[in-house]
Design brief:
The structure is a homodimer of 269-residue chains.
Chain A (H helix, E strand, L loop, with lengths): L1 E4 L14 H7 L5 E5 L1 H9 L4 E8 L7 H4 L7 E5 L1 H8 L7 E6 L14 E5 L5 H13 L4 E4 L9 H6 L3 H4 L2 E3 L3 H10 L3 E5 L6 E2 L9 E5 L8 H4 L3 E4 L11 H20 L1
Parallel strand pairs in A: 1-4, 3-4, 6-7, 6-11, 7-8, 9-11, 9-12, 10-12
Antiparallel strand pairs in A: 2-5, 3-5
Chain lengths: 269, 269
């Protein structure tokens, strides 16, 4: 492991870690993303498809993290700084004292996802927690990947990665284009697309039988999917008690994915 | 509507709103709780079982909120202050500019819940977001109430209420005792208790048929339910993909509740 002591917050070697929050919110244009915390670092090292560029840890964390850090490739620098210097670089207190920087690299093309039996498709999901939770659920229920439109927020945002329990680092995803294009491409590839909606005329989820290839399509928090999209797919609702017509969007996805997974498993027996 | 202008942050009439965060975290001993935001205020006024004591709003919100405020009973004061005074009282910026204070009143006894067909039972849920999400899901899927042990956190904490989409204000709940007592009481009342667990020997949720009375039991984030509790109930798992054995606890509850609701609805046809 190549540790590099950092004593000055202006050291150019830790420049990718400067003002993390502000740059995350503005959107990074340098092709990099930041990972925070021990669990996500360990997934980044063990099973991610992304190239790690550097690790940045608080000095007091060097010893407790030695097992994970032993997996850092020898050519990747592990910057080590006193906690105060680290906080000064990042612009806020890094309580966990563990950061890493990786490169997004070449994005997958949509064809990468089309062999999957189950896909999750996110349309206009603008909340990082919801995108992260959607990835966690997609991974838990064996979806082969996630397709996101350009309006949805970035799964490689620091908080999305954490909420995804690291799934955003290894579950294949493609973020490109619009819902209209997604529907055309998925239908050509043989997917039955379940557009999740509170419409009372939609089919009730638990009475459906998943097809060999099923895509679960989730729309924006608040307004939900546009009618023009729903009308091109199979509208599917989750039965709810009177007076309620909405649950959290990632939760709706979890219910649909769990049902597809359990039903297709039962079919395999 | 009785509006009362407040110009001084030390005015004793707004004392219940002083240092909201600190007092929320320490736990209030005065039998009051605070509600934040327009949607939750509206539920507090329209369908909650709690007695509202006062409303506290930023001056600029008086006009846009006039419709909701018209529902405030005439004996309840609506304190109105400049935003800066309001923030100074609360101890942090109240972006939405809407607070209300209500009394917890006499708690329900457990018997209040025992007529329900479906109950949600929370054991050691120590995260306010998860308690709030669990209430939102319980309401969406028609559970008759929520039973919480003493270790779980307070559903009337400001953030829990908000995440619950206000369900914590109207869905009956009882927070008392321990998991052991809950199991004894629910079984005496005829409930089939589904203890949600990743145990591979547990029954798979989607292959079960809910009983006339079903209770969904959820355990702490991380460790999950204790074996001694699971062994007294029907262990139920949600099938997941290899390598994953855990999803968010409120999400697990949502999947089980949605399945019970859809299955019992289908049985009613």
């Amino acid at each position: 492991m190549r540790t590099v002591p950092i004593s000055d917050a202006d050291d150019p070697r830790v420049a990718p870690y400067v003002s993390i929050r502000e740059r995350d919110l503005a959107g990074r244009s340098d092709g990099r993303f930041i990972v925070e915390g021990k669990v996500t670092l360990s997934i980044l090292l063990e099973r991610s498809r992304f190239e790690i560029e550097s690790v940045f840890i608080g000095r007091s964390r060097l010893e407790p993290l030695s097992e994970i850090l032993a997996q850092v490739p020898p050519e990747v620098p592990v910057y080590v700084a006193p906690q105060a210097v680290m906080d000064q670089v990042a612009g806020f207190p890094i309580h966990r004292g563990v950061l890493a920087c990786a490169r997004k690299g070449q994005p997958f093309g949509v064809e990468k996802l089309l062999d999957a039996e189950t896909l999750l498709v996110l349309n206009g999901i603008s909340n990082h927690d919801n995108v992260g939770a959607a990835f966690r659920n997609a991974a838990a229920f064996g979806a082969g990947g996630v397709l996101l439109d350009e309006q949805s927020c970035d799964p490689l945002y620091r908080k999305s990665i954490r909420v995804s329990a690291g799934a955003a680092l290894w579950l294949p995803f493609v973020q490109a284009g619009q819902g209209e294009d997604h529907i055309t491409g998925l239908q050509s590839a043989g997917f039955d697309i379940w557009a999740m909606t509170p419409r009372t005329t939609a089919a009730e989820l638990h009475q459906l039988k998943p097809s060999a290839k099923t895509a679960i399509l989730l729309g924006p928090e608040g307004p939900g999917l546009e009618d023009a999209l729903i009308d091109r797919c199979r509208p599917v609702r989750i039965a709810m008690a009177g007076g309620f017509d909405s649950i959290n969007v990632a939760t709706a996805g979890a219910i649909a994915l769990a049902y597809c997974h359990a039903t297709s498993m039962a079919g395999d027996d």
